[in-house]
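Input structure tokens:
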């Protein structure tokens, strides 16, 4: 079952997001990590929001533990953390 994750970074900016994504996504942020099928991000009234859909909770946890958390520690001027996190099993995924 697909698994969704939403991160809200209070005080986060587009510049911090770009700095972060270059480190934690493949090919400098040009590709999605293995197992991730959707990535959306944008400003909110108080910071920055990132939403991702993974093919399973396991692929999310693998990305989080092996790439995201270690990568965040390496980012200069990255998103402030830890973020507020909401996770959910995806009931419906529709595009178009």
């Amino acid at each position: 079952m697909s698994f969704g994750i939403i991160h809200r970074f209070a005080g986060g900016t587009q510049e911090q997001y770009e700095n972060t994504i270059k480190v934690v996504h493949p090919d400098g942020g040009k590709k999605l990590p293995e197992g991730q099928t959707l990535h959306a991000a944008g400003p909110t009234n108080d910071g920055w929001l990132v939403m991702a859909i993974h093919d399973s909770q396991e692929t999310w946890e693998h990305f989080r533990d092996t790439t995201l958390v270690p990568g965040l520690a390496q980012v200069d001027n990255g998103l402030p953390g830890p973020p507020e996190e909401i996770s959910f099993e995806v009931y419906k995924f529709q595009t178009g």
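The first helix runs from residue 14 to 24. The chain is about 30% helix and 30% strand.
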